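ARCHIVE CARD
CATEGORY: sequence design from structure
SOURCE FIELD: tokenized fold
FIELD CONTENT:
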């Protein structure tokens, strides 16, 4: 983000513990010294701790662990994703806000993030626990040019993005349970909810929701889901700074989405299978009214789940729930 604020933080960050004079900042940013001071006050509101010393200048003492439009956008190296970013302290559901924004014409790549959701929702009308500051509750508006039948591939793309970020940035190798769950040690770390507004042959917009359990202790989850839910903190033993993780997700998502547009679904399929949950194993599968056991073989080129039934017949599933 090439804003004055972004450049200001960059200048201060480069100097680490050293002070940077108000004069130097004003020259490099081409703004007056009172304007520099005003920017410092704004940074403090965003949670930066700034030390100002007479005749020495300014330095950053600590960075914010507070999610805001500025803290996420500063240093974000995307070209379209998150260029418009709406951050709210509390909402019913970021999905709902995203639908409203999309219907009002919000551009491709608009991101909505909330500290807390009071009615977070998951797939199959389940509720999604989204307590204040404990996780990432985020919805992305996409305006793809592909046909509506390819939309489920976006869920799989998002799952591989989260898996990649958890592996490289957090140091956890998760498994993806088709179509939308990220698990580790058999417990759920994150879920994805893709909602679509489409006509027969064109997608008006997609709202892609991601819920990521980051800093919850296990006591944060309601008792009935403690057995099945986990957080990155529980798995690594360390709290994670949310803004850094959000940036990483947005940057990786943009890169992979661009690749998807240029090269199609194949690279995602391969990446997905590298993280696939219980590939090659027999698992209980729920489809429509029946539950049966099947062997998960991978995914098709269109994103459908490939399963062998107990007669050895290959089935292509577009809608199913793998029990775990
Ligand atoms: C699931 O696993 O069933 C999907 C969970 C998706 C939760 C996210 S949190 C951000 C966005 N807002 C919502 O209300 N839901 C999604």
């Amino acid at each position: 983000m090439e804003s004055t604020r972004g450049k200001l933080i960059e200048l201060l960050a480069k100097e680490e513990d050293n002070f940077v004079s108000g004069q130097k900042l004003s020259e490099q940013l081409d703004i007056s010294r009172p304007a520099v001071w005003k920017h410092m006050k704004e940074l403090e509101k965003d949670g930066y701790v700034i030390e100002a010393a007479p005749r020495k200048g300014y330095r950053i003492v600590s960075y914010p662990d507070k999610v805001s439009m500025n803290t996420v956008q500063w240093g974000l190296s995307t070209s379209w994703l998150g260029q418009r970013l709406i951050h709210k302290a509390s909402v019913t559901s970021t999905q709902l806000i995203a639908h409203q924004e999309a219907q009002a014409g919000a551009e491709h790549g608009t991101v909505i993030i909330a500290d807390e959701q009071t009615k977070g929702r998951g797939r199959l009308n389940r509720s999604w626990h989204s307590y204040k500051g404990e996780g990432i509750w985020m919805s992305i508006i996409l305006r793809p040019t592909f046909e509506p039948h390819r939309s489920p591939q976006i869920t799989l793309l998002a799952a591989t993005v989260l898996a990649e970020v958890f592996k490289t940035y957090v140091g956890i190798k998760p498994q993806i349970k088709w179509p939308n769950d990220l698990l580790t040690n058999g417990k759920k770390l994150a879920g994805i909810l893709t909602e679509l507004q489409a006509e027969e042959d064109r997608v008006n917009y997609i709202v892609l929701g991601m819920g990521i359990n980051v800093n919850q202790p296990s006591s944060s989850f309601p008792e009935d889901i403690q057995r099945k839910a986990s957080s990155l903190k529980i798995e690594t033993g360390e709290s994670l700074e949310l803004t850094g993780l959000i940036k990483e997700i947005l940057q990786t998502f943009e890169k992979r989405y661009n690749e998807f547009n240029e090269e199609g679904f194949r690279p995602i399929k391969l990446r997905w299978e590298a993280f696939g949950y219980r590939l090659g194993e027999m698992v209980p599968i729920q489809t429509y009214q029946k539950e049966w056991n099947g062997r998960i073989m991978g995914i098709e080129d269109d994103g459908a789940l490939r399963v062998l039934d107990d007669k050895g017949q290959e089935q292509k599933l577009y809608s199913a729930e793998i029990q775990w």
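CARD ANNOTATION: The first helix runs from residue 4 to 14. The radius of gyration is 22 Å.
SHELF: design records, drawer C
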